[in-house]
């Protein structure tokens, strides 16, 4: 509903305007009435309205003075309509020159008022859409600059833009926020994307003036439907609490607003925004190791990963034996190695910190094994594989059965790294994209189809094309959408669906990100 302020010193005129038409049916609500310009000006100082309908001649402050003072002091963006008698028409002309949208002659006729309101409603809708498009453009451009910081591929321009458009301080963390259980959500039908958008909008709503600190799609992982938060130290300071308390309070509010169980993964604290990539990479580590940790609402890198010196032991003999078995892809020895490791930890009656250290040591050694086999292997891709490729439904979180399954899968992955099966598979993947780009294509499904580990497939894809599979697919879809915008008269929403985007807003954001303008502007410029 659009909000209207009625201003006239004649009470019967105010009452007459209020009952002259069905305001609600026209899409309006009368927010308030005022008997003179001064009273209306005071109201506008603390209340937002969309339209002011005001008489010209009034005591204390005329309608013309109200318009001029409101514009001069920039207290409201509301449009003005002047009520004018024939004898005051010269004043109405002056008001039009001063930025008034229109005028109505007294006595006001029902059909004239309805016509004006419908004209303004249409104008407002166009303005709101333009503002929405502009905001989407700004959000997408900001996200692009932040993502360059996340991945450590930024220059002074990226850094300067973020500093100019985001409130910052020291003690920066990247925080990954996601719903806890998405296993039963149908990604192909877009349910996961809908939940992701709900989480994003809820986070922005809670951050209020700091909403730019929330990033919709920071992760390059095609199976990750979380959102990112750039936490700065001033947030907790202004809230009068510690950062742990601040994030826990935000977590609780998010669960209530977003309607689901949520977890936060807070990366390493860094000195300022220039070091954001370090915090982001440690948040990725947290996600990779999350299944081996006790379930919590908020995970902090320092607590979960970093190990204090003294009092903690490694089961080095058992760990080295298990690493050898994984490297040799010996499934029998892998199972024995996992059993021996857990038996040893149980025998030593290890506390949770010691168990975490042993598991983390194993995972980081496996990371090094992959890097040694392929010097160009993307460690972030490997970390994503640890997170998404092995923690599947039905595996006990943190138990020996979970680790055994993961170790066997990782052994197969290392074997494929040695085989280097890239060229033929990538040709088939290219054909799949050209033929089925509008479908829900994922590396995991393609890996299963062509019998290649999905993480390794992601690595060789990035090597050949210089970008992730997800980005390549998005670029292909947007280019196909651009062709349809130029060559057909289809509605934008239909084109979005044709190229694989069921979420129209997300389609517009990606189009702006890749083409630098909205789809409607692209079509108009091309025409």
Notable features of this structure?
5-stranded parallel sheet; 527 residues; Rossmann fold; single chain; 4 domains; 10 strands; 5-stranded mixed sheet; 23 helices; elongated; alpha/beta; 9% strand
Descriptive report:
This protein is α/β, with parallel strands linked by helices and 527 residues long. The protein contains 23 helices and 10 strands. The strands form 2 sheets. Strands 2-1-3-4-5 form a 5-stranded parallel sheet, with helices on both faces. A 5-stranded mixed sheet has the order 7-8-6-9-10, with helices on both faces. The radius of gyration is 30 Å and the shape is elongated. The chain starts with a strand and ends with a helix.
Show the helix and strand layout.
Elements: E1 2-7, H1 11-20, E2 28-34, H2 37-46, E3 51-55, H3 63-73, E4 79-84, H4 89-97, E5 102-105, H5 110-150, H6 156-165, E6 173-179, H7 191-207, E7 214-215, E8 227-231, H8 233-239, H9 243-258, E9 262-266, H10 276-289, E10 298-300, H11 301-304, H12 316-327, H13 331-347, H14 352-373, H15 379-389, H16 400-419, H17 422-436, H18 443-450, H19 454-465, H20 469-487, H21 492-498, H22 504-515, H23 519-526
Parallel strand pairs: 1-2, 1-3, 3-4, 4-5, 9-10
Antiparallel strand pairs: 6-8, 6-9, 7-8
Provide the gyration radius in Å: 30 Å
Side-by-side strand order of the widest sheet: 2-1-3-4-5
Largest sheet: 5 strands, parallel
- Total number of domains: 4
Mean pLDDT: 82
How much helical structure, as a percent, in the residues?
Answer: 55-70%
Q: What proportion strand?
A: 5-15%
Low-confidence stretches: 307-311, 388-398
- State the total count of DSSP E strands: 10
- Please report the distance between the alpha carbons of the first and last residues: 35 Å
Structural class: alpha/beta
What kind of oligomer do you see? single chain
């Amino acid at each position: 509903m659009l909000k209207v302020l009625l201003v006239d010193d004649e009470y019967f005129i105010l009452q007459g305007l209020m009952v002259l038409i069905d305001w609600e049916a026209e899409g309006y609500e009368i927010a308030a009435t005022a008997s003179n310009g001064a009273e209306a000006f005071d109201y506008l100082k603390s209340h937002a309205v969309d339209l002011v309908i005001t008489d010209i001649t009034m005591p204390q402050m005329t309608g013309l003075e109200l318009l001029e003072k409101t514009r001069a002091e920039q207290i409201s963006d509301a449009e003005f309509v002047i009520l004018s008698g024939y004898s005051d028409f010269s004043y109405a002309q002056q008001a039009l020159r001063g930025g008034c949208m229109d005028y109505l002659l007294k006595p006001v006729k029902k059909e004239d008022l309805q016509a004006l309101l419908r004209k303004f409603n249409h104008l407002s809708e166009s303005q709101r859409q333009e503002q929405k498009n502009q905001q989407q453009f700004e959000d997408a451009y900001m996200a692009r600059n932040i993502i360059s910081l996340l991945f450590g591929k930024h220059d002074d321009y990226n850094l300067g833009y973020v500093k100019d458009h985001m409130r910052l301080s020291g003690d920066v963390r990247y925080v990954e926020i996601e719903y806890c259980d998405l296993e039963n959500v149908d990604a192909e039908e877009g349910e996961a994307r809908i939940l992701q958008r709900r989480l994003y909008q809820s986070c922005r709503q809670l951050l209020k003036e700091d909403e730019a600190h929330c990033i919709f799609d920071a992760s390059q992982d095609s199976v990750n439907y979380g959102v990112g938060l750039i936490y700065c130290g001033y947030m907790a300071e202004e809230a009068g609490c510690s950062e742990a308390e601040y994030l826990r309070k935000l977590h609780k509010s998010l669960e209530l607003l977003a309607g689901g169980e949520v977890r936060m993964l807070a990366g390493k604290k860094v000195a300022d925004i220039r070091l954001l990539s370090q915090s982001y990479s440690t948040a990725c580590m947290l996600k990779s190791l999350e299944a081996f940790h006790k379930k919590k609402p908020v995970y902090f890198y320092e607590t979960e990963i970093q190990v204090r010196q003294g009092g903690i032991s490694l089961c080095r003999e058992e760990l080295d034996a298990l690493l050898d078995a994984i490297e040799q892809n010996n499934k029998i020895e892998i199972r024995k190695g996992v059993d021996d490791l857990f038996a040893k930890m149980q025998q030593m009656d290890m506390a949770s910190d010691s168990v975490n250290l042993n598991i983390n040591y194993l995972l980081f050694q496996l990371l090094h094994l992959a890097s040694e086999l392929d010097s160009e292997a993307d460690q972030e891709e490997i970390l994503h594989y640890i997170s998404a490729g092995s923690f599947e439904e039905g595996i006990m979180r943190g138990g020996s059965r979970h680790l055994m399954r993961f170790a066997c899968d990782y052994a197969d992955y290392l074997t494929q790294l040695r085989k280097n099966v890239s060229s033929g598979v990538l040709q088939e993947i290219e054909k799949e994209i050209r033929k089925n780009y509008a479908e829900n294509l994922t590396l995991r499904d393609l890996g299963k189809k062509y019998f290649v580990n999905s993480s390794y497939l992601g690595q060789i894809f990035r090597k050949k094309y210089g970008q992730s599979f997800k980005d390549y697919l998005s670029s292909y879809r947007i280019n196909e959408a651009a062709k349809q915008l130029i060559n057909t008269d289809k509605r934008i929403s239909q084109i979005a669906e044709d190229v694989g985007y069921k979420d129209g807003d997300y389609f517009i954001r990606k189009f702006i990100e890749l083409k630098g303008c909205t789809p409607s502007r692209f079509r108009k410029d091309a025409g």
